[in-house]
Amino acid sequence: MLPRILSVTAGIIAGLTILVLGLAVIAILVTYPRLPSLDVLTDYRPKIPLRVYTQDKVLIGEFGEERRSFTKIGDVPQLMKQAVLSAEDERFYQHGGIDYIGVMRAAVGNIVSGRTHSGASTITMQVAKNFFLSSEKTFTRKFNEALLAFKIEHTLSKDQILELYFNQIYLGQRAYGFSAAAQAYFGRPLQNLSVAEMAMLAGLPKAPSSYNPVVNPERAKLRQAYVLRRMHELRYITAEQYQAARNEPLRLAAANQDSSLPAQYVAEMVRQAMYERYKDGAYTEGFRVFTTIDSRHQQWAFDALRAGLMDYDSRQPYRGPESFVDLSKVDDADVEETLDETLAAVRDSGNMQPGVVLSASPSAVSVYLRGGRTLQIRGRGLAFARSALSERVTPVQRIRRGAVIRIVEQGTHASIVQMPTVEGAFVAMDPANGAIRSLVGGFDFNRSSFNHVTQAMRQPGSTFKPFVYSAALDRGFTPSTMINDAPISVDPQTIGGQRWDPKNDDGKYAGMITMRRALALSKNLVSIRILMSIGTDFGQQYVQRFGFESKNIPAYLTMALGAGQASPLQMAEGYAVFANGGYRTRAYFIDRIEDVGGRLLARTEPAVAGRNAAQAIDPRNAYIISNMLKDVVRYGTANRATALGRGDISGKTGTTNNFRDAWFAGFTPSLVAVTWVGFDQPRSLGRYGYGGTAALPIWINYMNNALKGVPDIELPPPPGIVVRPGAALRGNDEYYMEEFQRTNPQLSINNRGTVPGSGNVTPDETAPAEEAAPAGDAVENVKELLF
After folding, report:
1. Which portions of the sequence form the region Disordered (predicted)?
2. Which of 44, 238, 312, 731 is the most buried (most CB within 10 A)?
3. Half-sphere exposure of residue 179, counting CA atoms within 13 Å on the CB side?
């Protein structure tokens, strides 16, 4: 009886087995032809983000929904491959795409448990799922995944499959692929990771959200330990490597820094330009954009602008903490977690890191910093914020427990600082072709993405005067023209408003003064008289040669004092005309665009001075103005720049009405740089708001680095210039256009008579007169000046 039962049972099992196999074969025959084409694998085109680089190939920006960086499998370190195989599929190079034992084990486990919680997927099966299938845990999906894995194995080589896996798998932090993950988590390429870091990444594919070292460092360490143990058991690493990796502390890249080089404003300019050209494809096609930015110059500009703005702000009162977190309602066990969450929501700003105050007294402040570090601040580190430690100030202004403040550490010393409310801009460019070498559009891009270099239209103040002086040279004036620096009153109809009684910034008047000295001392009344003489309409038309638009420069006498509007970039382009010998070059920031394979797609062909750029002004005019602007540095309002110890620097300070804008624009024959300081909502900068005190130090700081090791460039006068030895300030040579120099006595622009529309002009009898130029010096070829 028993043999018959066993025989029947065996027959039933055999029959069922044959039936199952038959059904499986039928399912395979029906399903296999319907599987998706593998073209997406054989012609793999991942969504690679737009990447922006400096001219010296430093990454400054990355834009795209997915962080990707395609890496050929041959460029992946062997230990990285072994770490992944240890964690995901140790028999990858032996099986045919399906680990049958693992699949059966997972199936049995799912049947017993009644849930589909285990899949035993090989790397090939994961590739099939990532490219073609959903993540639902069903038998149908698993069956299709197995068939696709079989198809993939018969179409691609093992290395090709592994390459797809390494570049496609999602690993958290918006990172797809191990190369992108290495940058996202550790800020370094795969080739530079340690064994411990490779093991950390290798543990992510199983569950990126659960084993993310940024979000769950403890879980991530446990998963890392498992991967390291498997690597050791498979003899991929030695016992010494295993122990060293187990003990290596976790060092993650700063999560709130997109790039080590602070060039976010430039990167955003590129993003906008690329979207304008390629629309949404800009973020997925893997374009590589190389800018004209020099990484060294960019860092110098960033540091100089921030130092200048912080220096200005340090002269203002401490405004109090940025915010507060109420720790009194938090259990002691949860305090550290609350502090970490609070700081995670606050971004670093350069070297100004946020901290939460744990305790505060007039003599010491204890601060909790990111990463669980506690810092004690005493002595001079409290000096700036000492007023906020007093019980007399309001709770909102007081530094107390729970206050979020800013800290700067310098070596072993730490100080309380604050984020400046004042803003600034800095741009430097090559005057020969307009290539921008550095650009910083504000104090902190994360605080405000408004680009003050390109978007801020502000009054340029006295930095605009050289363009008016250039117009005067075009009409026959020379640096030796004598002009009366005396008070004047202008009727409303002349300036399109109410009566105007302009004054010099220092309230002093020099009487008859040469045009050269007037520019060096930035005499407002002289600039106005010059514009009166040449005419506001001519002046407005003339300055368009430098790139200024007539709508922003009204044809009123206030133009002489820079009452129009211009951006720092427009000012840089204008000063480049003086620096390059009179040519109009346009600023540009994109050098070239390449595709993901490095093929050149587009390149900027700039207008180059002396080659294909338009001649904006007479080269002699440019030379003379540049020479006059050297005296602004040597003897005038920009005298601080002599600290650079150079003889080829020209420049002009600028301060607008009520100290709302502070400027300095300066150049050498090889580099033009402009800096601006002011508030977004225009208001007075106060007594520290002069161009020479707020803006010039920033420019000097930058140039001290940019010109280090660069020899002085002394350009010879262009043809058609007459040199008068010792006729300029302090016995320096004077320069004239040959057609505007004579031998008869010099004429001068004085203030006698009546200017149409300006009323009577009363001379200042008490103002000291400038010493008259010797007979025989240059004489102005100008008509009756109506004074």
Report:
1. 747-776
2. 312
3. 18
69, 86, 295, 462: the active-site residue:
462
Which one, of 284, 228, 271, 380, lies nearest residue 47 by Cα? 284
Helix axes 696-706, 295-314, angle to 10 degrees: 150
Residue 561 corresponds to which amino acid? L
The whole-angstrom separation of Cα 718 and Cα 613 is 18
3-state helix, strand, coil in the chain (%, to 5): 40, 15, 40
Is 272 within 8 Å of 581 (Cβ atoms)?
A: no
Question: Packing angle between helix 524-534 and helix 536-543, nearest 10 degrees?
Answer: 100
Q: Is 391 a catalytic residue?
A: no
Query: 176 has which bridge partners?
Result: 68, 170
* Residue 470 tokens, joined: 């250039």
Q: Which DSSP letter does residue 453 get?
A: T
Six-digit token pair at 311? 């220096």
How does pLDDT run across 719-752, given as a tens digit for each residue?
999 999 998 999 899 999 998 875 332 334 554 3
Using an 8 Å Cβ cutoff, are 591 and 292 in contact? yes
Query: Which of the residues 62, 86, 88, 594 is marked catalytic?
Result: 88
| pTM score | 0.81
Which residue bears the tokens 């030895």?
725
H/E/C letters for each residue in 141-159? HHHHHHHHHHHHHCCCCHH
Phi, psi of 760 (to 5 degrees): -70, 145
Q: Cβ distance 542 to 470 under 8 Å? A: yes
Q: How distant, in Å, are the alpha carbons of 8, 356, 377 from that of 366?
A: 83, 9, 6
Q: Is the dihedral of CA 297, 300, 306, 309 positive or negative?
A: negative
Task: Measure the CA–CA gap between 593 and 290, rounded to whole angstroms.
Answer: 6
The whole-angstrom separation of Cα 427 and Cα 425 is 7
For strand 583-584 and strand 614-615, is the pairing parallel, antiparallel, or unpaired? Answer: antiparallel
| Backbone torsion region of residue 511, taken as left when φ is above 0, otherwise alpha when ψ lies between -120 and 50, otherwise beta | left
Q: Mark whether 567 is an active-site residue.
A: no
Angle at which helices 195-202 and 217-233 pack, to 10 degrees?
A: 110
Distance CA 584, CA 132 (A): 56
Q: What is the dihedral of CA 191, 294, 712, 427, to 10 degrees?
A: -150
d(CA 238, CA 770): 87
**Gap between the Cα atoms of 523 and 510, Å rounded:** 9
pLDDT value for 210: 83
Smallest CA-to-CA distance from 347 within 439, 437, 251, 254 is with 254
Could you read off the pLDDT of 412-465 as tens digits, one per residue? 899 999 999 999 999 999 999 999 999 999 999 999 999 999 999 999 999 999
Strand, helix or coil for residue 132:
helix
- Residue 131 pLDDT exceeds 90: no
- Which residue spans within 502-649 are E strands per DSSP? 511-514, 583-584, 590-594, 600-603, 614-615
Kindly indicate the confidence band of residue 560, based on its pLDDT and cuts at 50, 70 and 90.
very high
Q: Which two tokens stand for residue 259?
A: 């790039």
Residues 689-728 have pLDDT tens digits of 999 999 999 999 999 999 999 999 999 999 999 999 998 9
Of the chain, the end-to-end C-alpha distance in Å amounts to 138
Evaluate if residue 161 carries a pLDDT over 70: yes
Looking at the DSSP bridge assignments, the partners of residue 426 are: 440, 675
Residue range 283-324, pLDDT digits in tens: 999 999 999 999 999 999 999 999 999 999 999 999 999 999
Contact 263, 229 (CB under 8 A): no
Bridge-based pairing state of the strands 511-514 and 482-485 = antiparallel
Contacts of 23 (CB under 8 A, 6+ apart): none
Chain centroid offset of residue 46 CA: 27
**Alpha carbons 383 and 83: distance in angstroms, whole number:** 52
Closest of 562, 532, 534 to residue 546, by C-alpha: 562
